[in-house]
Every structure is written in structure tokens, then in C-alpha cells.
Design brief:
183 residues, alpha/beta, five-stranded mixed β-sheet
């Protein structure tokens, strides 16, 4: 089961579009689910993501339009994993491990996906997998001085998540692999 984890696009306010190198990789028909940490900032970005997979889950970011009715938080189940989704601007201090752990306990999920910091971060702590896909466009952030465009693809296989991290570095896509096993 392939799950695209993406967010903080900020199109068109902070970035014109998703990098062409990423658009070549993200093709319709291969991805089963999309979870988006918000800050799409326009309907075109939402429509693009929907063209990749009809199962699209989006939470409200602090720059999303008032006319969209995204929830603040969402929990979905993919395979054996419960996945919590929250933009992250609600967590103080932003990006704090303690704040992330508190939200994870409130939601009671196996995987917590957040954004807002525009900084790609993935870690496993106390049997919980934490994922921040960063900004898919590399959009400016007051928190991250030199954001790198990034997204994550999770391949969920029974009790294992094989995670592929995609970063755009010097106009080349770099890919890393991280594995998480459910305790």
C-alpha cells in the first residue's frame, strides 16, 4: 500500500509549483493514499493531488484558504497502522518532540504525521513513527532558513513501513530509505 506524505506547498504565494523533478516521479495510478499536512493554499494544488490518488486526506494549515473545510486533525487507518495527521502550527513550540509526543498520546496512533516547520524529519521513538515531510516545494519558512524541497513515500506492508525520503538537492532528486516495524 503506497502512501504519499506531502505538505506545505504554499502555491502560488511562496512557490510557483511543485518542482518538475517531483512531478515526473508522481504519476497517477501508482499511489493508493495521499496524506497532506496542509498549506496547499490553492484549489489547483488539491486538484493535482486528487489526480494522483482519489483517496486524499488533508488537514488545515495556517495558510489554507478560509473557503476550504479541512479538519484540524484527522486519523486514518492504512493496513495495520493508525495514522494521525495534523498540520503542526497548533503545537507549541513548533516541531518540539515533547509537543509531538503529547499529540500522539491524545490521538493514540502508531504513526504521527505533521508539517509546518518545512523541515523534513523522520524518527522512531517509543514504538511510534513520527514523520514530517517538509515542504514539497521548498517554500520559504521563518523556522527553516534554507528549506529543501521534499516529500515522503511510505510503503505499508503488514507490520512494516518502508519509507522513501525524496529531497531535491542541487536540482537532483536524492532518495533515502528508512524502515519502521510495528512493535
Amino acid at each position: 500500500m503506497l502512501v504519499l506524505v506531502i505538505g506545505d506547498l504554499h502555491i502560488p504565494h511562496r512557490a510557483a509549483s511543485l518542482p518538475a523533478q517531483f512531478r515526473k516521479l508522481l504519476v497517477p495510478g501508482r499511489i493508493n493514499h495521499i496524506v497532506c499536512t496542509g498549506n496547499l493554499a490553492c484549489r489547483d494544488a488539491q486538484d493535482y493531488l486528487k489526480s494522483l490518488a482519489s483517496d486524499l486526506h488533508v488537514v488545515r494549515g495556517d495558510f489554507d484558504l478560509d473557503c476550504v473545510n479541512y479538519p484540524e486533525q484527522k486519523i486514518i487507518t492504512v493496513g495495520q497502522f493508525s495514522i494521525g495527521l495534523c498540520h503542526g502550527h497548533q503545537l507549541i513550540p513548533w516541531g518540539s518532540t515533547a509537543a509531538l509526543e503529547m499529540l500522539q498520546r491524545q490521538l493514540g496512533v502508531d504513526i504521527l504525521i505533521t508539517g509546518h516547520t518545512h523541515k523534513l524529519e523522520i524518527f522512531d521513538k517509543n514504538g511510534v513513527f513520527y514523520v514530517n515531510p517538509g515542504s514539497a516545494t521548498g517554500a520559504y519558512s521563518a523556522i527553516e532558513t534554507h528549506p529543501v524541497a521534499s516529500f515522503v513515500l511510505m510503503d505499508i506492508q503488514q507490520s512494516t513501513v518502508v519509507t522513501y525520503i525524496y529531497r531535491l538537492v542541487d536540482n537532483e532528486v536524492k532518495v533515502e530509505r528508512v524502515e519502521f516495524k510495528k512493535p
